[in-house]
Amino acid sequence: MTGLLKKDLYLSANMFRSYAAVAAIFSVLTAFHIFDISFFVSYVSVMCIMIPVNLFAYDEQARWDKYGAAFPCGRSGMVLARYLFTLLICCGSLLFSLLLQAAVAWATGVQGVDRLELLLSGLLPAAYGCFMNALLLPLLYKFGSQKGRIYLLMVMGLGVGLIFATMAILKELNFSVSQFSLSLLALPPLGLLTLIPSYFLSRRIFFHKDL
Amino acid sequence: MASIIEVQGLCKDYGGFALDHVDLTLPGGTILGLIGENGAGKTTTIKALLGLIRRDSGSVKLFGREVTAGDPALLEDVGVVLDELSFHDPLKVPQVGRILAGVYRSWDSGLFDSLVDRFQLPRARKLKEFSKGMRMKLSIATALAHHPRLLLLDEATAGLDPVVRSELLDLFLDFIQDEDHAILLSSHITSDLEKVADYVTYLHQGRVALHGAKDELLDTYGRLVCARADLAAVDPALLAGTRVGQFGCEALVKDRMAFRRRYPELTVDPVTLEDIMVFTVRGDAS
Q1: Is B202 within 8 Å of B36 (Cβ atoms)?
Q2: Percentage of chain A with pLDDT > 70?
Q3: What is the 8-class DSSP label of residue B106?
Q4: Domain boundaries in chain A?
Q5: What is the pLDDT of residue B285?
């Protein structure tokens, strides 16, 4: 199964170049204070959703599903490898976001910024990536990457809508998000946990598919 | 000799097309040629052997074990070449080797490298720059490099020039020198199968129209070329198909020797697998 992880890694490395180019542009814009650092971190979380979708598209183009399912690790190995890779991407984006936040804080010498807030602004986009992947991956297994792109927009829209709706309700009830800072720390592990039922659902879908 | 493949009563209904009670047997040390027109069910049969489709009924066994999607471990001993390249365009040959080294326990990097050298595949180029022949050679190299006991080859010689095809056929013949090895080769190129196959199964509209030892089939069947009046006088029960043209008639004779005894004045020529296929399809169409 390590071979399947390597395959995803090689294909992702191919995509990383174009993502890195966009990231470089965003970092320049951030450095000139045109964008806030949180915008850059959000970009990273979007990438950790986009990469699995693009991997599905690559696999479909090569008709990899048929070939991969004929490996000794079988269909369950294929699904497990895809989820492990997604987990790696989510953890990688989390680490990157945290390092970036820390670097910016150190470089700009930000004063008075709550450390917990800083931590959350790195953690939450990664948690968002986990939640979105947990929703999206079974849909990709069921409908493929072409329809999956439409679902990607729907799922991301739904996610953003939920966040804004929650914030609006909290505001209406005279609560501040910062009051829930500690509770929000539960979201990243929760995001990772949602990948578990999602994995079993994807496995079930893939097992019942004629390839 | 133990059977490496045993298929009995395989059925799969897609609505517009169905595999209908397909039986196959492949003994060790032999090559089975699976022939049939487009859409006859060759690829579906291979998919069933790999557990890629859920069959409606029937039994599919590899090495004496029932094939199921939930127990793919026996695929460690199966080398697969599907009818289209299964590797991604941005990859390069060494990356393909490293990927498959992490997939098969018995992956032999040295053998893979030697096959890549033998097939003269460029290591530095991306697969998207490969020709169809190069892609097929890569697929065959990957199928062989984990020391399989069974090769399932779906149109593996399609799109290759005669020199390369001949080289691959020699490779396949080497492979089955081991009595524990076997090959199922589906192909449209019946001349290739005439060179290497020990057994032939002809699938027609999802059913096994013909199965047997290749030499026996080619010795038994015959091709009758005669005038329309001669054909009219022949007992239709002795013929598997006819083709009536403006200047003469052709027919596929089921038993060449028996026919000669009954109609010594008519000439019956040896057949090719292609003749058998064409007459069966046209016989159905008429």
Answers
A1: yes
A2: 92
A3: T
A4: 2-207
A5: 45
